[in-house]
Design brief:
Structural class of chain A: mainly alpha
Largest sheet of chain B: 2 strands, antiparallel
Helix content of chain A: over 70%
Order of helices and strands of chain A: HHHHHHHHHHH
Largest sheet of chain A: none
Oligomer: heterodimer
Radius of gyration of chain B: 25 Å
Largest interface: A-B, 93 and 92 residues
Strand order of the largest sheet of chain B: 1-2
Number of strands of chain B: 2
Order of helices and strands of chain B: HHEEHHHHHHHHHHHH
Number of strands of chain A: 0
Distance between the termini of chain B: 48 Å
Mean pLDDT of chain B: 84
Mean pLDDT of chain A: 86
Strand content of chain A: under 5%
Strand content of chain B: under 5%
Number of helices of chain A: 11
Distance between the termini of chain A: 46 Å
Shape of chain B: globular
Shape of chain A: globular
């Protein structure tokens, strides 16, 4: 190894370590100070679980949590269905009327500032409500807003899987006489199942986390957990928020880590089966 | 007749619903809302309601379009809105630049690391992305407060003698935005750089280029699509950012998202709020078009 590449190796390690530290130190401080005895979030005075206990008895937080969970579940489910449709439309049908506008509309919510999406959706809901008397601002309208955003993310995830997928399998099934719907159910769906799962989880967490859209679209009595956290964080530091943060972080990390281990195993198993099938076929 | 029947069943099971369902959803919740915002921005605020644009009075069709909301945005002597727009653009641009300066070397070294280590490195970038963004912003409050962790740490080290005022300044705002949006820069850059063909770099070195020359003249131009996609992914949402300035910013960091919020919720001036939104859309429409062009290239090859 030359002196130059050793230097580059050290530089590379240094950059990686520094940026990871930047990304993770705030998260670590959140968790550490959730166990702090004192009400002061920045001064350590001893180990205590009292803030977790306080969270369990905080009606506002618990109610917000359940509402957020419900909205996130319905958002993720609807986003994956709509996202699958949109992704299939964009990858399989190269020409249809208004395709450019369609692809633009699908990806625009990804980058559009949330205040604009929130304002425009709220004004739309108000207009529709004036005509139809429906929907009241509440869980339903929050769900609609989140699903608009979630669908964009789901489409990107599913689309990238559909593009890299081997199309010859679908063509073979079609040649063997399957109807399009059969092909989709028996061939395409199992092949993209993993990306549907990641899209579901991604949109679930997005919805669970959203503040701006929820604040625009929520009505009286429909306060999601992020709205509660945001209004408390605005006022200053609050150890209960730290406890909520620690629980969220633990849940998410466990989920993501086990999820990726499971996916890696499934991938390996699939590879083994494929090579076994090849060996058998060659014998 | 049979043919006709087939056509209908095709229509119901084939490509028609696949395209129509998401199309309808987007038209209802994305296109229509923008038209409504556009409409309200040129309407007049009457005492309790928005005046209709088209009315039918005494057998005559009246169309009333009112640009006063836009004119008044840029007509006040203190140029409150103009400065807020400019400030938002500058903050977004600085954030984008810093994300690029930190994210590029990081993505580069990530893409150059051993193949078996890359999935773990990638997951470590994605993981904060999965945990609540709101809570991560909140964490910086505890770090940057005057009696916060960073000041305590620096005091303990003896680097400073009295706490520095960091919270609610431009510094805390930019730090929070860079922190939040860094993964959005890293991911497209990484997925671009990981595909970079090593043979180009070898050829360049063989032809006598120094590593720095190779970097500037080969690596950077080849990763242009990633740089542009990442930059737009950071720049556009930063302009309208609301939560980060609320939690980490101060009086000197007023951004346009907050102004829109106040016009709507505090002043109840819907046409003004809509006009603010329309101007914001005009500001981001060019970066948005650039993003859409490069996003297609990026996402098509992005493997998660």
């Amino acid at each position: 190894m030359s002196a130059g590449s050793i230097k580059q190796g050290a530089l590379s390690k240094g950059v990686l370590v520094l940026v990871y530290a930047f990304l993770y130190i705030p998260i670590i401080t959140l968790v550490v100070f959730s166990f702090n005895e004192s009400k002061l979030v920045t001064l350590w005075s001893g180990f205590s679980l009292k803030w977790y206990y306080a969270v369990l008895h905080d009606k506002e937080i618990i109610n917000g949590f359940w509402l957020s969970l419900k909205v996130a579940f319905f958002t993720a489910t609807a986003s994956v269905v709509l996202g699958t449709f949109a992704a299939v439309a964009l990858t399989r049908y190269k020409r249809f009327a208004g395709r450019t506008m369609f692809s633009g509309m699908v990806s625009a919510p990804l980058v559009m500032p949330e205040v604009i999406v929130g304002l425009s959706l709220l004004l739309t809901m108000v207009t529709i409500q004036k005509w139809l008397g429906y929907p009241e601002r509440g869980m339903m309208t929050i769900w609609m807003g989140h699903t608009l955003l979630g669908m964009a993310y789901a489409t990107v995830v599913i689309q990238s899987r559909l593009t890299e997928m081997d199309k010859s399998l679908e063509e073979a099934a079609m040649d063997l006489g399957s109807k399009p719907l059969q092909v989709f159910g028996l061939i395409t769906l199992p092949l993209i199942a993993q990306s549907l799962m990641s899209a579901w989880l991604l949109t679930f967490t997005l919805s669970l986390d959203d503040v701006v859209l929820s604040m625009f679209l929520s009505g009286p009595g429909s306060t999601t957990l992020p709205i509660v956290i945001f209004s408390r964080a605005r006022l200053g530091l609050n150890p209960e928020v730290n406890a909520v943060a620690a629980v969220t972080i633990a849940a998410v990390s466990a989920f993501v880590i086990f999820g990726s281990i499971y996916m890696a195993r499934a991938e390996k198993k699939k590879q083994r089966e494929i090579s076994a099938a090849f060996r058998e076929a060659n014998q | 007749m049979q043919k006709y029947h087939n056509k209908i069943s095709q229509l119901l099971t084939g490509r028609f619903p696949v395209i129509a369902v998401p199309y309808f959803w987007l038209a209802l919740f994305f296109l229509l809302p923008f038209l409504i915002v556009l409409k309200i921005s040129v309407a007049e605020m009457e005492t309790t309601a928005i005046s209709p644009l088209v009315s039918f009075i005494e057998g005559k069709l009246n169309l009333k379009i009112n640009f006063s909301n836009f004119v008044s945005l840029f007509n006040d002597p203190e140029q409150y809105y103009l400065w807020t727009y400019l400030r938002s653009i500058v903050f977004a641009a600085v954030t984008t630049l810093l994300c690029l300066l930190i994210g590029y070397p990081f993505a580069y070294f990530m893409a150059r690391s051993p193949v078996e280590r890359r999935p773990a490195l990638l997951m470590l970038v994605m993981l904060p992305f999965w945990t609540s963004f709101l809570l991560r912003i909140y964490a910086w409050k505890g770090i940057l407060e005057t009696n916060g962790l960073l000041n305590n740490f620096l005091l303990w080290l003896g680097v400073i003698n009295e706490p520095i005022h960091m919270m609610h300044t431009k510094f805390s705002l930019i730090l929070g935005m860079v922190y939040t949006y860094l993964p959005f820069m890293i991911l497209p850059l990484y997925s671009n750089l990981v595909k970079l063909d090593n043979r180009f770099l070898e050829a360049s070195a063989d032809l006598g280029a120094t590593p720095l020359q190779t970097f500037w003249r080969i690596t950077i131009p080849l990763s242009k699509a990633g740089i542009i996609a990442g930059s737009m992914l950071v720049f556009i949402p930063c302009i309208g950012e609301f939560v980060i300035p609320e939690l980490l910013g101060g009086p000197e960091t007023l951004m346009i998202g907050r102004v829109l919020w106040d016009e709507f919720f505090s002043n109840n001036d819907w046409p003004r709020a809509s006009a603010v939104a329309v101007v914001m859309i005009l500001l981001i429409i060019v970066p948005l078009a650039i993003f859409n062009k490069y996003e297609a290239e990026q996402m098509g090859s992005n493997k998660r």
